[in-house]
Design goal:
With about 475 residues, this protein is α/β, with parallel strands linked by helices. The protein has one domain (about 5-455): Amidase signature (AS) enzymes (Alpha-Beta Complex). The protein has helices at about 10-20, 25-45, 50-65, 110-115, 160-165, 185-190, 225-235, 250-255, 275-290, 305-320, 330-340, 345-365, 395-400, 405-410, 440-455; strands at about 45-50, 80, 120-125, 170-175, 190-195, 215-220, 265, 295-300, 370-375, 415-420, 430-435. Strands 1-3-2-4-6-5-10-11-9-7-8 form an 11-stranded mixed beta sheet, sandwiched between helices. It starts with 10 loop residues before the first helix and ends in a 14-residue tail after the last helix. About 55% of the residues are buried.
Amino acid sequence: MIDEAWALKPALEQARAIAAKQLKPAELVALYYERIARIDPELNSYVLLTRELAESQATAAEKRIARGERLGLLNGVPISIKETAALAGYRNSLASRVFEESIAQVDSFPIGRLKEEGAVILGKTNAPEFGTRPITEGPMFPPARNPIDQSRTAGGSSGGAAAAVAAGLCGLAHGGDGGGSIRIPASCCGVVGLKPSRGRISSGPLFGEDWAGLATSGVIARTVADAALGLDAMAGHLPGDPYWAEISQPFLQAAQRKPLSLRVGWTIDAAASVDPEVARAVETVAEELARLGHRVTRLSPDLSQFRPLIQVLAVTAVGALPINRPDLLDPLNRRMLEAAPRSTAVDYLNALIELHRQARKLVASWDQIDVLLTPTLTYPAPKLGTIGQDVDTASDQFLDWLSFTHPFNCTGQPAISLPLAVSTSGLPIGIQLVGRPHDEYTILSLGAHLEAAVAKSPSPLAGEGRAGRY
């Protein structure tokens, strides 16, 4: 078997080594499955393995190289996809016992794109039911544990994806983000999480829009360059999509170039209190950005106005599902299903109109800045089973924790969580960069610049190796 160090190398490095015939896709597949068998029983990051598919894709990738054919961006690179995404021929449960017997007839758009780019799909990763919780604890699967501290949540709803990346159980991971569900687990597990712009990755062919356009697929990865590579592999749209964002240049190029001097606004102001260590981490990153030559200003944008609106949209999204066994649901989703009929079409439309009105006001802040710097979460990963247990208070607890993530699902702006800080107890602290609408390029460039600066610096921002004992 190849050196185990390959399991934790960036996906970009893996792709290059495979193309140069220094590494065989089948060798990587075997390595990852050996690690999954040994490590994942402690973490529960995967809920379905697709070994036959992976091995056939690895063989096809090797044949393309041997024949000198054009290679996809991820040719031979082993990846994971989120349980809530459609993978043709495999379970399409939405992480719910209600749909446990459902089989996907087609691939969702990003999964089809990943296949086209030569990715090798190892399996599907853990998620809470319908992706409605920001922690990966649900009735269908055991909770996803954090590789940094297994007593704590991996976050959610793409918790299994982030745990798999952090533990070296895939090259990179597909995730989904409707209120922070890529950035939350990335922050909890100490990896990179990229939520693209609305319309950057089609929700088709199964959905026209997902959660009224708030939800999108995206990437969880070990480096900013890998996140950009994953976005290049998934980006695109279908004819008739309600939203789309044209691609002016490859995203990987942006992650590989030094940014110009930027106007960076930063804030730690939210409706909920922010952990002092989290606040200090953001302040330290702001200071580092100023040292690197950027123009840095503290701002106080209002990020609280979307809370009641996203609740209406989440409730009605659950209510629209063809659920015939409410007794099988997570108690929170059962509560949402019961509440959904009380929201009329007029209520839904008014919520959407108000959301767009508030989004325009918030996006106007980017007239004065190029990037907004915030915490990803108001505090680091909590203990398993400690947040959202009471359905009467769960929504407020979750939205307090997600004070800095869900607003940018509402505006549709791109945002990335970077593992730039560690608490005194050793827990990762994610730092979020938010770009202008349709401008992943600037946050990828700045994110890679920060990633490199922190890696070289003895600053208190830099923690120990993010993969821990894995």
